[in-house]
Amino acid sequence: MSKILVIDDERAIRRALREILEFEEFEVDEAENGKEGYDKAKVGAYDIIFCDIKMPEMDGMEVLDAILTDKIDTPVIMISGHGNIDTAVQAIKKGAFDFIEKPLDLNRILVTIRNAKDKAVLIEEKEVLKKTVKKFKGSSIIGETDGIIKIKEMIEKVAPSDARVLITGENGTGKELVAQSLHDNSDRRNMPFIEVNCAAIPSELIESELFGHEKGAFTSAVKQKKGKFELASGGTLFLDEIGDMSASAQAKVLRALQENVIQRVGGEKDIKVDARIVAATNKDLRKEIEAGNFREDLYHRLAVILIHVPKLNDRRDDIPLLANHFMTMVCAEHGIARKSFDAKALDELQKTNWSGNIRELRNIIERLIILGGDVITSDEVKLYANPGAK
Question: Is the model's pTM score more than 0.70?
C-alpha cells in the first residue's frame, strides 16, 4: 500500500484529500503546517507528498527546497488556491513533480499520483542500476589469484567508510585502479575524484598544487587558484607517490588531516575541506621514516587501512585474464578486429619476467597487436616481448 503525506493548513482540504486517497486504498498521513510536514517527510518514507504553497511557519516552496536539499527522492506535488502559471513554472523548476490548482479535481489527482508512482519506480530502478554499475567498476580489477581476491574483498569492506587508505606496491602494479575502485564503490562516487602525482610536481610548487594560492602569493600568481584539497571536497583526493612529498608539504598535509582545514599559499584564512584521502607509494615508508625523509605522524594518519598490490610476477596465473582484457581494450582503441592468442603464446607471457608489471604487459600486448598476426603465437611473444634482448 502506497503511503502519502498531505501538508496543508486547511483542515477541509486535508479531509477531502484523505477521503479521496483512502477510497483508492492509499495510506494517508497529515501535517497542518510546513514545519510539521517537513519533519515528517524526513523520517516518514512516503511514496508521494502533496504540499500546499501558502502556509504558516514554512510555506510550500520552503518545504520543497528543504526536501530537495536533503535529497529526499519522494515526488512532491504542489497544490494551491492562489495558483497561476508563474507559480506553477517556479515550482516545477525547483523540482516539484507537478502542480495542481484548487479546487482539486479527482481525476487530475489520480492521474498525477499514477505518474508520480511511475517516477518513483524509475528512481528505484536507477538506484539498482547505480549499484550494479558500482559492482561492475569494483570488479574491473582483473584477476582471480588470492592476492587480488583479498584486495577486492578489502575494497568492498572499506569503500563505504571514510577511512584513509594507504596503497603500497611497485610501479605499474595498478595502485591507481585500487584508489579509483575505492572511490567508485563509496558514497562519494558522485563527487570528484582528484589525483595528484606528488613525484611529478616540483617541490616548490607542490604546496600551491595541493592547497591553492592567493593572487600575488608569488611572482606567477596572477590570480587566486583553488588547490586539489578544495577541488576534492566532498569526494576523494588521491595522493599518488606520497613518499616523494617535500617536508614542508607533509607538515601542511598533516594539519589538513588533523583539522580538516587548509590555508592557501599567501593566505591567512582557514578553509574547511571534506575530502577522503587515499594515498599510494612505491617506497617503504618505514625505511623513509628511519632515514628522516617521511614524517611518522603523517604515516600513522594515512595508514588507517593498508592495501598492498602484488607485483605481476607474483600473480602469473592472472596473466591470461589480463592479456585477453588488454587485447579487447587495445583492439577497440585502434578500431581493428579483435585478435587472439594461441595457448602457447599465453604460456610464454606467463614465463616472461615482468619488471614493469601490468603497465609493461599492457604495452607489450599493444605491440603484439600492431606487429603480430591475427592469432598471436609464442614465437611472436618471444620476438616482441623483450626486443632489446634479441
Answer: no
